[in-house]
Amino acid sequence: MSPRISRSQRLMVVIAISSAFFVSEISVGFYTHSLALVADAFHYLSDLVSFVVAFLALRVSEADDSPKALSFGWQRAQLLGAFFNGVLLLGLGISVFLQSIERFISIERVENPKVMFIMGSIGLGLNLISATFLHAQPAAHAHDLGMMGVLVHVLGDAANNLGVMAAALVIWLTHYEGRYYADPGTTMGISVMIILSSFPLMRRAGRILLQSAPDGVDAEDVKHDLEKIPGVLSVHELHIWQLNQQKTLASVHVMVSDSSVPAFLRLTKTINECFHAYGIHSTTIQPEVVHPGAISSLETEGLEKCQVVCGAMCAGLTCCG
């Protein structure tokens, strides 16, 4: 059986490959005056930063100890790194797009397109190796947003290399004066692809950071099922959110008429089973006891309001304020 390579080790290999190629490509880009090569090299530089961020986020998330102020530990470190990578991609794409417009206005001859083509070919090969290396990971980590961010960077680089090679062939094999527009044209296409690739990453990581409910879980459906449980009078202040890609949490206020502890413990077991059916395995349940004789006197709106009175000073600071 071949030894299993950890995610940290995969990232270290990709960082080493990207570092070596960045130095080579930026040098050749300035030598040949190719904006496409320079843009691709700076894309590599942003990739290096993002790879290092993803690597550090991964190492931090795997750490056993964390500051006392972080009650959930480093469980969102990789999500933060993935969101940072998305923002970095967006900024880079806009910057390269503006550079390509400037080059369209003031066209510059590309020297030695053959070297430009060779450099693009080497980059394509290295990126395909890196992508294969990153993709060959255990199924448990197949949808890791941190690793997904790195993979998006690498695949974007591979597409960029194809564009560089196409521009180099146009400049190399054709002889009309407008052939040099292939370089900024390719750069503009690269920048648009970079911008478009940043949005899904930012959206998915951002939604979790904003504590949204996971896809496929509707709070109204959960509330409806909870209120069908015998002994539950009403449910309010139901909050469902993702801590990370694997863990979903929930908190809820449950109005009951039986104030005995054993009865509430039995009810809690049933409530948790309902949450488990939705993939929610960590819950906080706040009981609110209503005297049986007062149930009939409460209007429907009253059953939706908190029965635990906080006071005027803190009412606006509670989740149900």
Automatic annotation (TrEMBL):
It is a multi-pass membrane protein. SUPFAM superfamilies: Cation efflux protein cytoplasmic domain-like (SSF160240), Cation efflux protein transmembrane domain-like (SSF161111). One of its GO terms (molecular function) is zinc ion transmembrane transporter activity. Keywords: Cell inner membrane, Cell membrane, Ion transport, Membrane, Transmembrane, Transmembrane helix, Transport, Zinc. Gene3D superfamilies: Cation efflux protein transmembrane domain. The keyword ATP-binding does not apply. The chain crosses the membrane at residues 12-31, 79-98, 118-136, 148-173, 185-202. Its main location: membrane. Residues 214-288 form the Cation efflux protein cytoplasmic domain. GO terms for biological process: intracellular zinc ion homeostasis. InterPro entries: Cation_efflux, Cation_efflux_CTD, Cation_efflux_CTD_sf, Cation_efflux_TM, Cation_efflux_TMD_sf. It is found in: Cell inner membrane. The keyword Repressor does not apply. Pfam families: Cation_efflux, ZT_dimer. Residues 11-210 form the Cation efflux protein transmembrane domain. NCBIfam families: CDF. Belongs to the cation diffusion facilitator (CDF) transporter (TC 2.A.4) family. SLC30A subfamily. This is Cation diffusion facilitator family metal ion transporter. It comes from Aspergillus violaceofuscus (strain CBS 115571).
